Task: inverse folding
């Protein structure tokens, strides 16, 4: 398995319970597809470098995970179709 980092920017208007539910959902997707979540850092609400739609703030979360190609493909697919996700990026960590 390879090391990956996934950063997600969620809509700032979401309630705390909804934010936690989305983060748990993304963790579950990774685990159900053969991955392992090593760490989840909730950075909280921060100002965006550039406005996205009408939003100038976003809720940031960073996942450190282990996974195979199928794990990352499915996580990426779910992140693309989930309401509340403004942006996401998944990168492979160096050796």
Result:
């Amino acid at each position: 398995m390879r090391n990956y980092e996934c950063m997600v920017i969620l809509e700032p208007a979401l309630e705390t319970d909804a934010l936690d539910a989305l983060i748990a959902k993304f963790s579950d997707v990774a685990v159900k597809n053969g991955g392992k979540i090593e760490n989840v850092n909730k950075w909280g609400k921060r100002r965006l470098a550039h406005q996205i739609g009408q939003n100038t703030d976003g809720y940031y979360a960073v996942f450190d995970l282990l996974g195979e190609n199928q794990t990352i493909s499915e996580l990426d697919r779910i992140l693309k179709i989930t309401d509340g996700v403004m942006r996401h990026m998944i990168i492979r960590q160096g050796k």
Remarks:
- The chain has one domain: 2-92.
